[in-house]
Structures are given as structure tokens and as C-alpha cells.
């Protein structure tokens, strides 16, 4: 909807085809169908406000301002990282809350038409025709440019990949980690510690990090990553759990979140087993441009880890970069999509790789590698978030959520330098300790 509003603002007629029915599309009953909360940053705010000056006021109705990031390990609060006071704070918002807010914004444009309950059936790339199925019959659409924003499992992308002689390649990485969400109740009393500050809470442990995202009523959505084909978690892969399996999930949650302040009812643990799960999917296409006729945006072309909080923000940033280039070249310029792809793809893929490599360590099926990844993540947050910040800049997770003139690719490169510095510091300390012990033994 972000690209639709920008196009409508420029005077173009826009048609949005959505496979869900309108009631499902606007379902703000944040329950079984709804996934994790999103973190939306100032980079996205600015793009929405280009199209509609009051867009942020509309979207804020469904969100809560995030005051920072909080790192917990057992019963200890390791680190609190506050965002820059010089810019609007990121928002934590349920996915369907954001969809509903953007829909309200888009409906203010008379030249945007929604077509619900339209499922993409096929794309004729040779004749540039897109076919949809609808309860009333099949519909073919042609005669315009296409902006494919159909998510990480994009059917448009898959059909283009199968199109002969397209020159399109798109390797994909799909991890063995499944992510489901637990919903807590509201706290029984006012929270006065760090849990009372809305934001993102990382619960680190030696097994699997949990991520708790605040809701507006101070309840939480808890992202629970579970490893497939792991003896420790095999019993959790079922939709018809026994009482023992439900109890196992409850015990894991209590072990990983010993200071969690909100009650999670027993019924919620049972519902967890039937919930939709999410996977860490990464796509690595060689282009975003589709024969100068269509362009793939967002997760359709650069799906990435939900843990990084950048799927939504990087998707909206695509729109901003495309808009800037269109203002210079013209929306109807046949070279627009190709030049946009050449500029945007290298930057976003450098950023993707940094998040991918961080996640591959933290969510590895190998317990030693996973422990190393968690320590590496905690180390960069602790060291670069305090004493070494003047030298290495803000920690990667913080810099991703703050506005700056630095590109996403540059932030990723700086993160790699931070990781290298942390490794060198740890090695120096270990070597010094070994040398000290040997000296005293000798």
C-alpha cells in the first residue's frame, strides 16, 4: 500500500489486488491469525508522510511508541539501549494493525481501488498479462506497470523464475527454525521495572533467544523460535498436543523468561500448537526489474529474518528509493525499474547478509555454534552500546532502527567491523588469562 499511495499522490490510477477477503484483511482481532509485532521506524514514517501528511497520526492508533531495547539473561537485566532523542521513536505495532492503518490511509485517495478475494493464478510475461481468479470468475489485467509486493513466498517471483530465458535467478535459504507466537495477558499491576517500558525485550539464554514485543496495553507478543529435527524440541512439532507437551512448552517459557511479569494462561500454551508458524526465509535474486514492465519490491524480492525488525522498514524504503528516482527520471521512463534495481539491490543484499549471518549463528542447530552466536550478539550490544560506541558506532540492532544518512549496506559493513572487534577483544582477554596462568605455574 505504500507504493500505491506514492503512485496515487503522483496522479496515477492504482489497482490493488489482494487474495484475502476484506474481513480477513482488516482483522484486528489480534489472536490466532495474527503473527508477530512489527517495529516501524522513522525511515518508514517519512515515506508514508510523503504520500499523506497525516498518515502517521492514523497508523499510531494501532501502535505503541518503543522506548528502547532491553537485554535480559535469566533474572538479570544486562543492558538497556535507548533510542536517539533527536527523532521520533520507532513504533511497535501488530501486523494487522499496520495493515488496517495503511488501508485507512489508502482509502483517502480516490484513484486507489482495492480488489479483494483475487488470487494470482498466472503471469504471461511475454504478453504482459496478469490473471487472477475470483469467485465471480477469472480476471485478466494488462495495459499498466506492475508492482509485485506479494511477500516472501511471492508467486509472481516464482513464476518469473520459471519463465524461459528470463535471465532471472533467485537462490533461497530457509532455516530449520520455526517461529510461533505466544500472547500474554495484561499485567495485574503497574510495571515499574524495565518490563514497564514499551519496546523490544530480548531474553537471552544458552538454548534459544526469545523476543518479547510490547502491546499498547502492556501485554506482550512472545516470539518463540523452535529448532526442527532437534531432540530437545521434537515433541513440540504437533498440532494435537498432549498435556505433557503443553507442559513442556510452559516449562521452557518459564525457564527462558524467569522475570516475565505477565500471566500466560494455560489455554494459550495449547493454542500455540495450532498457530501459523513463520520461518526465517532469505531470497537472493539477481535483479528486481522484470523486463522494464514490472518491479518486485519488499519481501517479494529481499525476504529476511523477522527477528531483525527490518522486513517492513526495508520494504517501505524500497518505495522511497524508487520514488526519488522516479522524480528524476519520470514514472513512465522505461529505464526506471532497471536503474532502480541496479542501485537498490547491492545495498539491500549487503544488509541482508549481515542479518542472515547473525541469525545463522544465533539459530544454528548446533548448540556450540548457537551459543557462540548468542554471545557474539550480546557482546556487540554490550560493548558497542557503551564504552566502544564512539569508536564503532551504535550496535547493529540499534542503528537499524534509527534514522541516519548512512545506507543500510554501510550499517551492515560497520556491523561486521563491530563483530571483528568483539572477537579480537575476547581473544585478547583469553590469551592474556592463559599467559597469566602459565606465568604463575612456571
Description:
It is a single chain. The protein contains 15 helices and 18 strands. It is of the alpha+beta class. Among the domains are: 106 residues, D-Amino Acid Oxidase, Chain A, domain 2, CATH 3.30.9; 80 residues, no CATH class. A hairpin with a 2-residue loop joins strand 9 and strand 10. The radius of gyration is 23 Å and the shape is globular.
Percentage of residues in strands: 15-25%
What is the CA-CA span between the terminal residues? 70 Å
**What is the number of strand segments?**
18
Instruction: Specify the overall morphology.
Output: globular
Give the assembly state of these chains. single chain
Uncertain runs are none
Strand order of the largest sheet: 5-4-13-14-15-12-16
Task: Output the CATH class name of one domain.
Answer: Alpha Beta
Strand count, sense and barrel status of the largest sheet are:
7 strands, mixed
Helix content: 40-55%
Radius of gyration: 23 Å
The overall average pLDDT, rounded, is: 82
Instruction: Assign the structural class, choosing from mainly alpha, mainly beta, alpha/beta, alpha+beta, or little secondary structure.
Output: alpha+beta
CATH topology of one domain: D-Amino Acid Oxidase, Chain A, domain 2
Separate helix tally: 15
The second-level CATH architecture of one domain is: 2-Layer Sandwich
